[in-house]
Structures are given as C-alpha cells and as structure tokens.
Amino acid sequence: MAESPTIVLVQDSFQVPAVYERLVHSLHNLGYMTIQPRLPSCSDTGGPEYPKTTLIDDALAVRKELVRQVEYQHQTVVVVMHSYGGLVGGEAIPEDLSYTKRQSFGLPGGVIHLFYFCAYVLDQGESLLGTCGDRPSTNVHPDGRIYFLEGERKLYNDLPEPEASTWASRLMPSSRKVQTTILTRAAWRYTPSTYLVCENDQALPPHDQAGFAATAKAHVETCTAGHSPTLSSPDMLAQKIHQATLKAISGPLEAASFSTATK
C-alpha cells in the first residue's frame, strides 16, 4: 500500500463544520488527505423542509463520497467518526466497500478501518432515541428541530472560556428525525475499529463510550480531552488516528496490545 489512506471524516450533529478545521490541518501535516462530506442535517437548518431530514440522508451523503473514493479512485479509506457521526458512518458503509471484501474479489481499495472518538455505536435495527432516549442537554421544539443546551459546559469544557463561548454561540439545531431513524447496517460488524475514549467528555460519559467501544469490539485508546478534541487537542487526535491507521495497514489490530493515556 504505497500511498497513505484517505481519511473520510464524519462530523457530530449540532456543531458547525469549522469545528474540524484544526484536525484536518493536523492530519494534512501528517500526510493525509481528509474529506469531510457535507451532512444534510448540518446544512440549511433554517429551511422549511429541514425537519424532514433523517440520518439516512446523512449516510447517503457519506456513502456517495466513499463510492467515489473506493470504486472510482481505488483509494484505501479510514473513516473517522465523532459522536453522532458514529451512527452515520456505520450506516454509510456497506460491506461491499470494505477493504476485506474487495480484497476477496481481487479489487483495489476499500474501507480498511473505523476510528471512533466519543462516538455513538449502535446495531442494525436500533435508533438513537430508542436506545439512548432523550438527553437532558437537548431541547426538542414542536417544529421538529432539536437544540443543544449548555454547549460551553458540555461540548467545550476543556477550552478557554472565551473560546468555548464563541463555539457555543455557533451551535445549530438538529432534526428530530435523525434520532428516530432505524439503522439498517452496522459497519463495525465487518470492519476493524479503534475507539478513543475521551475521559473529560461532559456530553457523552466515558463509561458510555466504553460500552460503545465494547459493542464494536474496538481496540480502545484513552485521552484526557473533552467532547471536542478537534478544537482542544487536534495534534493529539491526529496522532491517534495516524497510529491506528499505521496498524491497520500493517496488519490486524490486537485488542489490548497497547493503551496509552495522552492529552
């Protein structure tokens, strides 16, 4: 595998895409091309049709990019998923785009690894609302939009207060329908994964993250960041992704082979 894999980055809900720019820059410095597909649930949130947006709409946007990278450009891909993005990525990747399946047919490229950080991981037949219920940090409006509360404390607690306030002011609503969408697939069932547990996360508790990692049978890493290490610790996060990628392209990860706690 001569070239570095392409990174496809699947973002969280509520947060603006700019939250990921520092991470993209850090990955670029490590030699990775990073693509962040535009999610319908994170776009045009004030439009009259927006409340009809589902998780499937987001997954199709990601799948379109994966098809482009794998089937047409024959790229090897690592899918990096944050929070809600873990569900989108899991739904977006059919088994025939996986590296293992394509190798079995003598085809180039494919999704070789999944990297989750403070991310939700569910199985097919489940939904975010049905499995996890409503979070006290969200407010559901009658028009079908959901708003995140206490962003400074929950999402940006490890940033300096003025910066946390700035990012919290940029939060956008999400669609209620993304939470009620029933998943039809779970990519972790046929693709190896790494899960980075963020121990200072105030939005998705570390013990829940550990449970999601166990669901995916993922190799587990830990760090001391909060829910948005893309802002607070982008170089650390990029290094974790880099380490997981190197192990993925050199051979299967062995769970518990290493586990370090870094910031």
Sequence-ordered SSE layout with sheet pairings:
Elements: E1 6-10, H1 21-29, E2 34-35, H2 55-72, E3 76-82, H3 85-92, H4 99-104, E4 110-117, H5 128-132, E5 138-140, E6 145-148, H6 151-154, H7 161-169, E7 174-175, H8 176-180, E8 193-198, H9 206-216, E9 219-223, H10 229-232, H11 234-250, E10 261-262
Parallel strand pairs: 1-2, 1-3, 3-4, 4-8, 8-9, 9-10
Antiparallel strand pairs: 5-6, 6-7
Helix pairs in contact: 1-11, 2-3
Task: Measure the end-to-end span.
Answer: 30 Å
Give the beta-strand count. 10
What does the overall shape look like? globular
Structural class estimated from helices and strands = alpha/beta
Strand order of the largest sheet: 2-1-3-4-8-9-10
Helix content: 25-40%
Mean pLDDT: 94
Topology pattern, helix = H, strand = E: EHEHEHHEHEEHHEHEHEHHE
Question: What does this molecule look like?
Answer:
By secondary structure, the protein is α/β, with parallel strands linked by helices. The chain is 37% helix and 17% strand. The protein is built from eleven helices and ten strands. It has helices spanning 21-29, 55-72, 85-92, 99-104, 128-132, 151-154, 161-169, 176-180, 206-216, 229-232, 234-250; strands at residues 6-10, 34-35, 76-82, 110-117, 138-140, 145-148, 174-175, 193-198, 219-223, 261-262. The protein has a seven-stranded parallel sheet, sandwiched between helices. A three-stranded antiparallel sheet has the order 5-6-7. β1, α1 (21-29) and β2 form a beta-alpha-beta unit. α1 (21-29) packs across α11 (234-250) and α2 (55-72) crosses α3. The longest helix is centred in the N-terminal third of the chain and has 18 residues, at 55-72. Residues 252-263 have low confidence and may be disordered.
